[in-house]
Amino acid sequence: MSVLLDVKDIAKSFKLKGHWYHKRKLNALSPLSFAIEAKKTLAIVGETGSGKSTLAKILVGAETPTTGKIYLNGQLLKNQHFKQRCQHIRMIFQDSGTTLNPSLTIQELLDEPLILNTVLNEKQRKNLIRTTLQKVGLLGDHMNFYPHMFSGGQKQRISLARAIILQPQVIILDEALAALDPSLRSQMINLLLDLQQQMGLAYILISHNLGIVRHFSDDVMIMSQGEVVESGKTIEVMRNPQHKVTQKLMMSQNFQIK
Amino acid sequence: MNLLDIRNLSIELDTPSGRVLAVDRVSLSIKEGEVRGLVGESGSGKSLLAQAIIGVLEDKWHVHADRFHWRGIDLLRLSIDDRKALLCRDIAMIFQEPMSCLDPTTLIGEQLSEAIDTSQLSGYFWQRKKQRKEAVIKLLHKVGIKKHEQCINSYPHQLTEAICQRVMIAIALAGRPILLIADEPTAAMESTTQGQIFRLLANLNQLKNMSILLISHDLENLTHWTNTITVMYSGQFVEAGSTEQIFNKPMHPYTRALVDSSTKANLQLPTKSRLMTLPGSIPVLQHLPIGCRLGPRCPRAQQTCVAAPTVSNYHGHKVSCHFPLLRETGKKVKGSH
């Protein structure tokens, strides 16, 4: 299968305050490369400060990488070219409650990306919103509701609807499953897996719950202090963890695969 | 002997549209030296129950119980002041998000020394200050903070979350409690720090024989650390029993769904297969179903489920369901309760 997203030698360093002939640099991300195919999931596991959120921000274009290039379908993604990027790479955040604007109805919320990125007229947009809401398991009539009228699990579905409404190719889940209750979490996992099959999406899952990572992902990348310490097929890495960081993570969750 | 024995505790809330039964006849008992898990999703009333036990609910909540015993003393017969004095001495509580529970403008050392009761200090008043400081350092050592001098002289924002939670536990330990109530002590923490906090709590339980009521929304995180588990759903009692009973042989459809939906317990499942799950979402407090509140989501629900089920006891495994999942049909013994 052809490679969908190809990341080559991405690195990020921040300049710290210092005297101007005594400048210091903080390497948030050492050069790393990976590639994802369509319908595959890459999991990124690591502690806080390991650079996984920085990586996610670089991929969606919220940060510019210091060095390195990102190719989508063989095409180079330019740093300032948001229109091209935000149609194909979308992101879902951890706390869905705070990422939805409370003063807009769901219709207005989902309308925004359509107005900015498509040439559809009002009627077509409304129809698209209705079908997208149905796709994520909500009702079309929910579009007139405000975010506070939904429960936590439903809000997460709305964030998902906002992510898939532009028919993207890659979705980044930044701890999107962590704040949900267990029974809603498994509903959400089922929904995400169904959508992956239907739409041919590639997911990048950032999580620290190894159970979910095992169930959900094909490949895994374990990061520590801005470096990839171990990567490979999820099952193989978890069966036989090589690096100390991986072993520590698996120990801390009492996680063992025979 | 049961340390805490609660039978049929109900908590009601006054709302403009009448009283709402937020917690409906929940029973809970804790033995001495036991770690009991209390599991429930958001809105299941587990935090309310904990707050009702230590008596910090506001006036708009009304608490009733058939029995509320603490070490054989009937708390319902005591006056409010007596009850407070008793519970303050014996029960301590720690909360989630330790950073927000500590006073951001006061040094850790001062906050800790505030928690130490004067009756614990011996000696004359001019020796007290030194003794107090020694007691603070001892408390910090107990929770595994070795750099006590640095910790005492810092503000909460200068410390990591794990250290802050340790300080919270130290404050809770200052009164030498018999029961520690931990309300989601590791929510929003790293898995490695979660492990540290749980290990610390397990050590305290082993070394000091302190009972712990561990509240969490996630069944799979708890199972490693608890002896017994009580499961709640939407304010109703669901199931209680030893950890093995709950995790390996759940009898209630809800517990069964919780265990089945856990990705950690189902490692034999092929990756990317569909997980077992309950349809629908958790009911809100204003629109609770009558009878068994799981009813609309339950795969085994029948007409009788519109009446609330009574609790049945199978060898210490209590379950509140009309149609429990009994796989060993030969061993069906219905005990009294």
Automatic annotation (TrEMBL), chain A:
Localization per record: Cell inner membrane
Signal peptide: none
Top-level taxonomic group: Bacteria
CC per GO annotation: plasma membrane
This protein's record includes keyword Membrane: yes
Pfam annotation, one family: ABC_tran
GO BP, one annotated term: transmembrane transport
PROSITE patterns, alphabetized: ABC_TRANSPORTER_1, ABC_TRANSPORTER_2
InterPro entries: AAA+_ATPase, ABC_transp_ATP-bind, ABC_transporter-like_ATP-bd, ABC_transporter-like_CS, P-loop_NTPase
Membrane protein topology class: Peripheral membrane protein
GO terms for MF: ATP binding; ATP hydrolysis activity
Keyword entries, A-Z: ATP-binding, Cell inner membrane, Cell membrane, Membrane, Nucleotide-binding, Transport
Domain ABC transporter: 5-250
Listed Gene3D superfamilies: P-loop containing nucleotide triphosphate hydrolases
Sequence similarity: Belongs to the ABC transporter superfamily.
Name of the protein: ATP-binding cassette domain-containing protein
Organism of provenance: Colwellia demingiae
Lineage start: Bacteria, Pseudomonadati, Pseudomonadota, Gammaproteobacteria, Alteromonadales
UniProtKB/TrEMBL annotation, chain B:
One GO term (biological process): peptide transport
Molecular function via GO: ATP binding; ATP hydrolysis activity
InterPro entries named among the record's database cross-references: AAA+_ATPase, ABC_Ni/Peptide_Import, ABC_transporter-like_ATP-bd, Oligopep_ABC_C, P-loop_NTPase
A single cellular component GO annotation: plasma membrane
Membrane topology of this protein: Peripheral membrane protein
Keywords noted in UniProt: ATP-binding, Cell inner membrane, Cell membrane, Membrane, Nucleotide-binding, Transport
Subcellular locations according to the entry: Cell inner membrane
Chain ranges of the ABC transporter domain: 4-259
UniProt keyword annotation of Magnesium present: no
UniProt record similarity statement: Belongs to the ABC transporter superfamily.
Record's protein name: ATP-binding cassette domain-containing protein
Taxonomic source organism: Colwellia demingiae
